[in-house]
Amino acid sequence: MKKFLLLVAVSAFTIAGSSAQSAFGIRGGANFFNFGGDDVSENDYTNRAGFHAGIYASFLGEGPIAIEPGVFYSIKGTQNDDGLESRAVLDYVDVPVLLRFKVGEGFNLFAGPQVSFLTKSKFEGDIGDSTVSFETDAVKSTDAGLVFGLGYNLPQGFNIQGSYDYGMTPIFKDSDADVFNRGFKVSLGYTF
């Protein structure tokens, strides 16, 4: 599955690079992620701030529909408001393939699948003035889900967008718990 999605993303970048109606860009911004799912109590965790940054390609962009694959480094996780301020810090490489629909002057709606590859996972907590951290292998190496949101094209090639990542693959290995990565992203981009 992950090889297939990676192949789709590489193919999309190749097609975009050879297309007469293609563009490339950079995008980054803030993440606000939490654990979600049936086995997560709303009182257990709070949103954890992180960031994302990466590149995207857009092709067939002159009409009302564009295809936009991307590759982004993204820090996700969650935070617990216990006495230790314990938190999960999950570093991923996100590979979305989005379909953008122009819906008005400068506005667009987008949605599509995303596969994420775990690069590092750790749990942290604060004890006094010190932070205790340990890496864990309890998190699955891939995460799949959906992305959807709203974007706006600014003058001079800049764009802003807000999106929601809806994780659909349980996070933890060897567990039947329905716990997923879920969160919002706010981004600023530039298309060359």
From TrEMBL:
Signal peptide: 1-20
Keywords associated with the record: Signal
Superkingdom classification of source: Bacteria
Record-annotated Outer membrane protein beta-barrel domain positions: 20-172
Name of the protein in its database record: PorT family protein
Native organism taxonomy: Bacteria, Pseudomonadati, Bacteroidota, Cytophagia, Cytophagales
